[in-house]
Automatic annotation (TrEMBL):
UniProt-listed CDD domains: Peptidase_C1A
Domain Peptidase C1A papain C-terminal per the UniProt entry, residue ranges: 119-340
Source taxonomy: Eukaryota, Metazoa, Chordata, Craniata, Vertebrata
Statement: the UniProt record of this protein carries the keyword Magnesium: no
SUPFAM superfamilies named among the record's database cross-references: Cysteine proteinases
Cleaved signal peptide residues: 1-21
Entry's family note: Belongs to the peptidase C1 family.
Record keywords: Disulfide bond, Hydrolase, Protease, Signal, Thiol protease, Zymogen
Protein name: Procathepsin L-like isoform X1
Any Pfam family hit: Inhibitor_I29
Gene designation per UniProt: LOC117658072
Stored Gene3D superfamilies: Cysteine proteinases
Positions of the Cathepsin propeptide inhibitor domain: 30-89
InterPro entries with a match to the protein in the record: Papain-like_cys_pep_sf, Pept_asp_AS, Pept_cys_AS, Pept_his_AS, Peptidase_C1A, Peptidase_C1A_C, Peptidase_C1A_papain-like, Prot_inhib_I29
Keyword field contains Hydrolase: yes
Length: 347
């Protein structure tokens, strides 16, 4: 690890180098962006953040010029991540872990796709009333809890016809096997709901936002109220790894499905619209959890998944992404799970 003095020296050199490259023609745009997102910096940090913002802005503009010419099927846009480096974003947003060995296999049911499933070519659970509003995980690495609540909300809607926003903070505080704002996996969130006998609503157990607390998941911070439980699950289903056909059938027949994706690219961070797809020959790594709420199937290869994110409505298509379907983009079909409702109990 670098000593404080050496790290500080590198920081100062970086600031001086970057500040000399600032573009005065975007000064007004920079001020507007800071005002829009409530950004304030110490004097010694602003040049660095401005330089990162300019670098990201240039990348966005360069990409969109190529997209306008037909090279890409999606466009980028400046958002609230604009002043962060890709490394900072990866660290902040790397919230899906790989602790699958912690999951009780006895509660897992493998979803097997049909040879010729009778399912529609397109479905969108938003139009059916089964998806809550887009939420914001903030700087907490809690994507796993948002993905899990989204699947549970869909499960509850399918069972009762009622859409209720469920509590991510309930899972952050009470899912002892997960790591709170330091990451987790959806299966263990479903296990928590099974063990504690339900999950509270967002209204009764609101999200704390950006708090990273040493007390999280020690059991003492759990404020779950059994009498205010909204829904229960007694197991979870897992789709066969990398089976997009099975994933499509599950979304059609069961409802919204929790998935892991590789969200490390800067273009993913600044996705704005269109059908996202990358030609990535490097090693894929699942870093982020999202929720598939629908799809549009096309035999011509232009189909897409509809994914709900937890980065607020400032990202993507008002918080959603259309992801190219059929080539396992971002490894979307590698880790796909959904809760199974308790048939005997619950509302």
């Amino acid at each position: 690890m670098l000593s404080i003095s050496v790290a500080a020296l590198i920081w100062l050199v970086s600031l001086r180098t970057l500040s000399t490259a600032l573009d005065p023609t975007v000064e007004g745009t920079w001020r507007d962006w800071k005002a829009t997102h409530g950004k304030e910096y110490a004097q010694e940090e602003e040049s660095f953040r401005r330089a990162m913002w300019e670098k990201n802005l240039q990348m966005i503009q360069d990409h969109n010029k190529q997209a306008d010419l037909g090279k890409y099927t999606y466009w980028l846009g400046m958002n609230h991540f604009g002043d962060l480096t890709n490394e900072e974003l990866d660290k902040r947003l790397h919230c899906l872990l790989s602790d699958v060995d912690k999951v009780t296999k006895g509660n897992r049911i493998t979803f097997k796709s049909s040879d010729d499933p009778d399912i529609p070519d397109q479905i969108d659970w938003r139009t059916k009333g089964g998806v809550t509003e887009v939420k914001d995980q903030g700087s907490c690495g809690s994507c796993w809890s948002f993905s899990a609540t989204g699947a549970l909300e869909g499960m509850h809607f399918k069972k009762t016809g009622k859409l209720v926003s469920l509590s991510e903070q309930n899972l952050l505080d009470c899912s002892k096997e997960n790591y709170g704002c330091d990451g987790g996996i959806m299966e263990l969130a479903f296990e928590t709901v099974r063990k504690q006998g339900g999950i509270n609503s967002e209204k009764s157990y609101p999200y704390d936002g950006t708090v990273i607390n040493d007390q999280i998941c020690d059991g003492e911070s759990c404020r779950y109220e059994p009498e205010e439980s909204i829904t229960r699950c007694n197991s979870f289903g897992q789709i066969m790894e990398n089976d997009e056909k099975g994933l499509q059938e599950a979304v059609a027949k069961i409802g919204p499905v929790s998935v892991g994706v590789d969200a490390r690219s800067s273009k993913f961070h600044f996705y704005k619209s269109g059908i996202f797809g990358e030609h990535n020959n490097g090693k894929q790594e699942l870093t982020h959890a999202m929720l598939i709420v629908g799809y549009n199937h096309s035999s011509e290869g232009k189909g897409y998944w509809i994914l709900k994110n937890s980065w607020s409505t400032l990202w993507g298509e008002k918080g959603y992404m259309r992801l190219a379907k059929g080539s396992n983009q971002c490894n979307v079909a590698e880790h796909a799970v959904f809760p199974i409702p308790d048939p005997k109990k619950g509302k």
